[in-house]
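Hi Q.,

Before the meeting this afternoon, I wanted you to have the zinc ion prediction in hand. No need to reply - just skim if you have a minute. The sequence and ligand are here:
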Amino acid sequence: MNIIFLGAPGVGKGTYTSRVKEKYSIPHISTGDIFRGNIKNNTLLGKEAKGYMDKGQLVPDEVTINMVKDRLSQDDVKDGYILDGFPRTIAQAEALKEFSKVDIAVNFAARDDVIIQRLSGRRICRKCGAIFHVKNIPPKTEGVCDKCGGEIYQRDDDKPEAIKKRLEVYKKQTSPLIDYYKEGGNLIVVDANSEDIDSIIKNLVERLDSTRKSA
Ligand code: ADP
Ligand code: ZN
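Predicted structure with the ligand bound:
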């Protein structure tokens, strides 16, 4: 089953994926994580992406599309994948169609004030990438990852100026994908306003399972 996760930055896509990927035992592919991994390892791709990311802009389509195409050509995705953070533009969706078939597109919907609250409180483990939130998912010890003991930090693009820019970019370039996949007939909408992550996951899993059965 090839699944893509749509939704504004900060709506919780990464958190939900990390919770459902075991259930379906398919890989979780996050373009943001791949870019951050490249930045950490100081690769050429990382150097190119960083300038855009810190400003809250999208990395150019060509770079991003090639990166995803390459990732989806690997063996581990033959039974499916959850793609989180891609596509983010119509051009990316059109390109994806050429090299992979999307079975289900999930749109996580939440109000602007909810999104801003999530982004500004988000914290990430530098070592394993686990996602926390100062209020909603606090680590047991402040500044320390529950899972691996790594240091927890705030992403540069989770600071107020970049957040504003990312939401603008989302509205303009990414939100048209909701209609794009609706017209394609494989869109599911999941309400992500609640702070009760378990209930969002439960709803998501029910919807995915029933869509899978009817497919
Ligand atoms: P979020 O969903 O919280 O915005 P991500 O980790 O998905 O965070 O993405 C962080 C940044 O990485 C984006 O703001 C953008 O600069 C870059 N990026 C990730 N995915 C894409 C993509 N599909 N196309 C272009 N840029 C991307
Ligand atoms: Zn960690």
